[in-house]
Each structure stands twice: as C-alpha cells, then as structure tokens.
Amino acid sequence: MKIKELERILKAQGCYFVKHGKRHDLWYSPITQSHFPVPRHGAKEVPIGTLDDIVSQSGIRL
User: Fold this and answer.
1) What architecture is the 3-58 domain classified under in CATH?
2) In 3D, which of 2, 21, 14 has the Cα closest to residue 60?
3) Nearest to 1, CA basis, from 43, 40, 60, 36
C-alpha cells in the first residue's frame, strides 16, 4: 500500500493530519484519541511492520 492510499483510508475513517515533521507527518485518531506518525516517502510502498503499527495506533480497519 502506498502512502497516499493509506492517507485516504485514514481520512475516510475520521483521522486527520495535525502537522509536518522532518520525515513524518503527525496525525490524530479520534478512535484511539491519540497522535501517531505517518512517514512521508512519496510514492514508495509502506513497509508491512510500519503499516501494522499505524493501523494499531490509529484503530482503523483495512
């Protein structure tokens, strides 16, 4: 899954962008009521371990 596709899924499930960091963006999840980082790697695929961490921290369903 690419970053843009992941961002669309996050937005569709209520998560939203908070701010830019150097290499990661900070997002907020109303599901878990917490912030979590999402890497900014352009058109690259998100590594499986990173994707699993984002899914668990955000509380979304793929």
Assistant:
1) 2-Layer Sandwich (3.30)
2) 14
3) 43
